[in-house]
Task: structure prediction
Amino acid sequence: MRFTFFFFLLPLIISCNSCSNSSSVETPIVPADPPIEVINDPITPISDTDALDLVQQQSIKYFWEYAETNSKLARERYHTDDPSNDANIVTTGGSGFGLMSIVVGVERGFVNRAEAVSRLTTALTFLENADRFHGAWPHWINGNTGHVIPFGTMDNGGDLVETSFLCQGLLIVREYFKNGNATEQALATKADNLWNGVEWSWYTKGENALYWHWSPNYAWQMNFKLEGYNECLITYVLAKASPTFPISNACYTQGWARNGAISTAATSYDIPKIFNHNGTGSVGPMFWAHYSYMGLDPRGLTDQYANYWDLNVNHTKIMNKYCIANPQGWTGYSDKCWGLTASYTRNSNGSTGYTAHQPNNDKGVISTTAALSSFPYTPVESMKFLKYLYEEHRARYVGLAGPYDAFSPHYIWKTPRYLAIDQGTIAPMIENYRTGLIWNLFMQAPEVKTGLLNLGFHSTQHGF
Result:
């Protein structure tokens, strides 16, 4: 049977500011359409080590072999069924994940070091000349011209959250290459200068909080205050760590932590949530446990509000238990096929769309990055999913740059497509599970340690 997919770009459905303290499981909904058939592919055994090596190497290809051709940064998306689609749209946050992925590639020998330095130098030179808005890059950049591509009518200026994901990558590049040869040191200096140019304090608009967007045409009209809990912790951490434009502690405690209202005693599946996840009585999509913690090491990390290792482990275990419980009755969900996060999705009419999958927005679609990027938190559960992909369904769900973005066993559906923000967390987070490389590089940055201490954080893992 041949399927035709239509892609409708939707803005990422993320947090709202009201959260329930309910510990109840979402109300079961019987799926409207029954499964068409059950497909069992032949099992091809692969060792744990080989599977980890393979998924890392393949995922890094997205940022190496399928990068935007001029800037060498990350394309927003790559469709194997339509490779020219949005070929020159560069994604800022996804490019930050790409920087970290390339560092993993160098460390693992998947990418030649000298070639990586040359490629990264081209990418950072492009960023030096690209549009910036009080130091922040836009969500999307034209890879040919460096000019902003509006993400929405009023979203045509600086995107502070995407910029923070990029800066996480810039700091990793700086720390990894700073003691290398002259060319590598020059690259590290570029990364440092770019990071220091972000005017974090501008994005408070004079309040004790950070705001997501600023536009030269629409100013603060989008008015999206960054309040926890969602994926934006790293934005506050970097804004405080900035040597040039730091924010006050009050921005963190009053804006992000909402004067303590971020915390909750609620549970889900008898597991403490620890934080109120914006917009849901359960937990949010799994990328909330990934994007801020690519570099920020949650091991032994605490402040007055949380133990961040427990926060992320609990989030992941709740998601795993939700998928196993499968209250909506989707065919295929199990202890080896699980994981909900923002990704491509199957629309009700069979076309391809985009949504932030989570327990209160479960479409019967598994996002491959959800379990794979959670390896540090749930190594046993994540390995079951990795083996499910590479032993049982490799021909079906794995393509030229690693696992496809999303699939649905219930609807016998997959999308042979990739998104930078999904593919980009896989190799770095698996590397953090294996060696702690990206965590250690980020946490050794002196301004990161100072910023965290000033906010009241401590890390037993890193001795402060």
Observations:
- The chain is about 35% helix and 10% strand.
- Residues 160-177 form the longest helix (18 residues).
- The domain at 48-459 is CATH 1.50.10.140 (Glycosyltransferase).
- The two ends are 58 Å apart (CA to CA).
